[in-house]
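Sequence, please.
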């Protein structure tokens, strides 16, 4: 496991998660979280976003979730058709209802986009670009759509996006269907679109490992965002 980047010799010691201003834009913490329940992670990213300041490093979290439907701020109840035994959680991201479950790669992006000089639309475009490039490495032809955020293979959706920007800083993120049970998507109108077909990488690539996909998408996101100094950690941030 890599440590956070060291400070230059002779500088004052700073609290964890802080770094010299000149290196902030190029520095990133990547956290690998494994399989997690939804609500504790949502609470952790919200707390991280609330407590960060101008000298806090950006973070990207890679994980899978236990089965859950999440309903965005503008979500309409009629798009939740028959959730059955899967919980529905009302959350503070954009968009309508979606499903998370094992075999789906979730990436949360806690980025200071104001510091990076990015607008919300440019952030979405870069995320979509990273997903499309990752899928191309597997021989999967995919594209974004102007009328609906996300990434599609033909008419079917393979990756969903749902972000929130608070004071120039993003949280929430993306979900890429890798090798999962797609049946729960039939219990909702995915992202508010009735009959939206959903697909996954497994339909196109016989041998696909979510850990390998996670590393590939991580590297694509690092490239499109322009980070140079990366620290790898496991587990959620600790708070005093």
């Amino acid at each position: 496991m890599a440590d956070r980047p060291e400070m230059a010799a002779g500088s004052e010691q700073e609290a964890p998660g802080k770094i010299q201003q000149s290196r902030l834009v190029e520095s990133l913490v990547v956290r690998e979280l494994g399989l997690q329940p939804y609500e504790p992670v949502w609470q952790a990213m919200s707390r991280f976003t609330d407590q960060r300041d101008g000298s806090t490093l950006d973070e990207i979290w890679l994980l899978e979730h236990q089965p859950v439907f999440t309903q965005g701020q503008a979500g309409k109840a009629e798009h939740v058709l028959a959730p059955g035994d899967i919980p529905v959680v009302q959350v503070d991201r954009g968009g309508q209802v979606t499903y998370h479950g094992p075999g789906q790669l979730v990436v949360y992006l806690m980025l200071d986009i104001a510091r990076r000089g990015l607008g919300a639309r440019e952030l979405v475009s870069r995320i979509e670009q990273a997903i499309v490039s990752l899928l191309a490495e597997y021989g999967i032809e995919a594209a974004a759509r102007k009328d609906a955020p996300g990434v599609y293979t033909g008419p079917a959706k393979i990756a969903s996006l749902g972000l929130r920007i608070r004071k120039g800083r993003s949280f929430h993120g993306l979900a890429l269907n890798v090798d999962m049970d797609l049946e729960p998507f039939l219990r909702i109108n995915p992202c508010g679109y009735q009959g939206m077909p959903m697909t996954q990488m497994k339909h196109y690539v016989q041998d696909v490992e979510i850990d390998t996909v996670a590393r590939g998408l991580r590297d694509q996101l690092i490239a499109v965002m322009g980070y140079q100094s990366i620290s790898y950690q496991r587990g959620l941030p600790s708070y005093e």
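The longest helix spans residues 120-137.
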